[in-house]
Amino acid sequence: MIHVTIEGFGSEWSRRTRQDGRNPERQHTAYYNTTGVTVGGKVRPRSRIFGQLRFNGVGGFISAGVERNIGRVFQCSAELDGPVHKLIFHHLLDKPQAPDFFMFDGDVEVHGTLVNRVRTLEVGRGSSVRAERV
Questions:
Q1: Where are the domains of the chain?
Q2: Which 3 state secondary structure label does DSSP give 22?
Q3: 3-class state of residue 73 by DSSP
Q4: Which of 1, 103, 112, 134 is the most buried (most CB within 10 A)?
Q5: Which of 107, 115, 112, 109 is CA-nearest to residue 133?
């Protein structure tokens, strides 16, 4: 497990709810966040390119006013072997602790182009993405 402090979010949110198998009157909710990009004039999520954050509804995540989660430290795990890379935020830590990592949002106009070994990605306020071999 790793500890991650949230310093920003992507522009696209979704929520999934499922019934509890043991108690039909109970539901489990998960919230997903990823980057949005403009495709054909509409903002679309691009979790296969940028990955996805998952927050459990019972782990201390504040879904009503997500900005209230900024600066908080969560215990997390990563799923990096599937088609969509996920960082799963299991629960808020009880006591303030130093994080292992910080999660930031990015904007090409503020931060410039992000480069890794496989591709160059440009994200501008959810408006454009360019991927190319390096």
A1: 2-104
A2: coil
A3: strand
A4: 103
A5: 115
As a whole number of angstroms, the distance between CA 51 and CA 47 comes to 4
Contact by Cβ (8 Å): 103, 32? no
9: pLDDT confidence band, cut at 50, 70 and 90? confident
Measured CA angle at 12 (ends 8, 18), to 5 deg: 110
User: Which amino acid, one-letter code, is at 11?
Assistant: S
Q: What is the pLDDT of residues 15-60, one digit of tens each?
A: 998 888 788 788 889 998 887 776 787 776 665 566 788 998 888 8
Nearest CA-CA partner of 76 in 99, 58, 96: 99
C-alpha closest to that of 56 among 35, 95, 86: 86
DSSP-assigned states of every residue in 95-119: S----SEEE----HHHH--EE-SSE
Structure tokens at 106: 């990015």
Can you say whether residue 62 is alpha, beta or left, with left for phi > 0 and alpha for psi between -120 and 50 degrees?
A: beta
- Can you point out the beta strands (E) in 40-85? 42-45, 52-56, 73-79
